[in-house]
# Entry
Amino acid sequence: MFEGEERSVDLAKYIISEQCTVRDAAAHFGVSKSTVHKDVTQKLKRTNPVLHKKVKSVLDKNKAERHLRGGEATRIKYLSLHNK
# Structure
């Protein structure tokens, strides 16, 4: 395994098993979001195409849902401001 390949696989397995976001995986592993994204999109595509395809489906789902998470966060923010 080359440097970072093991981390790429670990990140991908974590994202798939937890159905989590890049941000969540970055916090869990103590690396930047950019590192997670590069590892699971670019490096993994070259080294483990099967795992890359699985993690890509989770990332695509997260991308499609992100406007919902953002909208919910904004709603909660303004509800808390209104209730103070």
